Amino acid sequence: MRYAVLTLLVMQALPAAAQERADSRLVVQQGGREIGREEFTLRQSRGRGVAGTSIVASARYPATNPTTLLAATLERTPEGTLAKFQLDVESGGVVTVILAAGSGARLIVRTVGQGSESGRELPGGPDVVLLDDQIFSLYAAVADLATPAGRPLTAVFPRSGKRAAFTARREGGGGTPSRVTLTGGLTGTLLTDAQGRVERLELPSQGIVVVKAD
Asked: Domain coordinates of the chain in residue numbers?
């Protein structure tokens, strides 16, 4: 039964992300060397046209002959709170599906793998953003929540379970390109275009630089 559920989830998510016509592409570098590629679409609506925003992304590591494939969907309400999160990771022929949903001050994370399933409850709320170490278009949510004065946020990485408290300070935005400075438990610089799409991300502590592909 669990394997059947996993298969259904993969059929619903991985092909959908693969078939989505991406409107932006990213090159992921570490230590000056390209390690992966990502494609994503940022829409000003959720599934079935419901108000909010959604990111549909796919990534491959390495870019050629990849050994790890990822597909992610993040939907948020008009207020910026979590509506849906799903991350599918295929590595070594094994697929793992990670689901997250918010309920008030709680964040429920469920992980489904071949022959296994687990769940955990984490602190949630409007200042929580869901990120991943290999899907960088998700940082668009950080830019959306950032403020000129600096907004305290908590990053949750559902796949690894990491958490990081940080502050996101934005310059620009509101229909113009923006620059967001990240300080605290997550440090770096994020640049987005006028539509809020990630164009460049620098995470010095990890040696990661993500740039928009030409």
From this structure: 2-212
